Amino acid sequence: MESANNNLKQEAHVLIFPSPVQGHINTMLRLAYALSFSSGVRISFLNTDHNHRLLSFSSPSQYSRFSLRSNFRFLSIPDGLPDDKPRSTLYLTELFDSLKTRSVDSFRALLLAGGNRDTDGWPPVTCVIVDGQMPYFMDAAQELGIPAILFRTINAYSLWVYLQIPQMMEADELPFPADADLDVPIKSVPAMEGFLRRRDLPKMCRGATKADNEKLQLLASNSASATRSKGLILDTSNSLEAPILSKIRSLFPNTYAIGPINALVESITSSSVSANLFAEDRSALSWLDSQPDRSVVYVSFGSIALLMEEEFMEFWNGLVNSGHRFLWVVRPDLVANATVTVKLAELEERVRIVAWAPQEEVLRHRSVGCFITHCGWNSTVEGMAAGVPMVCFPWLWEQFVISRLVGEVWKVGLDMKDMCRRDVVESMVRAAMEGEKAEELRQVAAEMAVEIGRSVGEGGDSRLDYERLVRDILSLSLSASGE
């Protein structure tokens, strides 16, 4: 009996807490699933109460799949907002303010309660992995003596741009007037001088006011908070971002580049993982089954991006005018402050509109020829892992950097930022689907997918970093438990 208790005492118990938005939950749940296959590791996955309810209702099959694992459990804490308060994109600032001011005490209490063994025999939390958007939870854990690792779900290039905001300000490259030439190069960001422009920086950099300057400084400060952690996890690989990873490691030596995580999880567990806060509807796959190979344009702007009504109609008309089939994921809240209707009667054979689709499966479907995306990192790496060319229309923050990388550095797609016109949409769809340019994009995208597969496979750089992460988690847990 004493021997069994000693073994339990030495077991690592990792609590993982993502930012309460779809893409972050998905990415960190994938990491949690991979870690649950590691010997001697238990996983508590923490959501807000609101998202925990949505996840269990909207993704019952995935929820059950996780719950059946003996070393995995879901936990939740309040986000501090009333139940009837919206958590959609327009209210995200209020949500994060509430988390910072009202939820840290609940988080701390949960960790303290884990100081004694639960009745189900779970050991105390010995390590936390916290979303880098919420460094205040990392600080709360470490104040209790629990080692914390930050997970940034953005890519390395974007993180590097955020870290260089003070240097750009010092070099007078930030801020710049709203009417400035957006194609002027940015020269003060090392290793990105050859392709970074004003146009590729977060949109709030344009015509920034004094208040915006403070927000930019806060963005840089949050990015630098990894120096207070025991390590930094990035959903990327050397095959994608080697030049910048070396820069980041000069600031954060204990950086784990373990991505793309969707491909890593499949390599380790032979299965894919996704969790959704929206009701599942797999009818899109049946429709794709009836389409010819590489004939469909898949359109999805993620879980939080918003389009203005005019932008939606420009996309709609450009897609229709291209003459190609398309599958478009249109969330109920995709169009800001408006409800749009489109006439499908004459287009039913080549158009499908859905509120949700299983994205990884869609991207790997033989009928999908290109992906129109907002360039959130999660969507971008899913597209690259599937070998699908992209057309990028970024909406927020790091997406502007990523779209430039897709078009200019990795050359696996086309960047249409700041050009939301129906003629541009039509021409870019045609370029990605027809002729020599399309063949060139397909070849580069296919080669990228192969390289990603190597990085997450046995002996690949991402797999080796992941294995180092597991070893370090076990080591940190032994130290935290006093062994």
Automatic annotation (TrEMBL):
InterPro entries: UDP_glucos_trans, UDP_glycos_trans_CS. It holds the Pfam family UDPGT. Keywords: Glycosyltransferase, Transferase. GO terms for molecular function: quercetin 3-O-glucosyltransferase activity; quercetin 7-O-glucosyltransferase activity. The keyword Glycosyltransferase applies. Its EC number is 2.4.1.-. Belongs to the UDP-glycosyltransferase family. This is Glycosyltransferase. It comes from Dendrobium nobile.
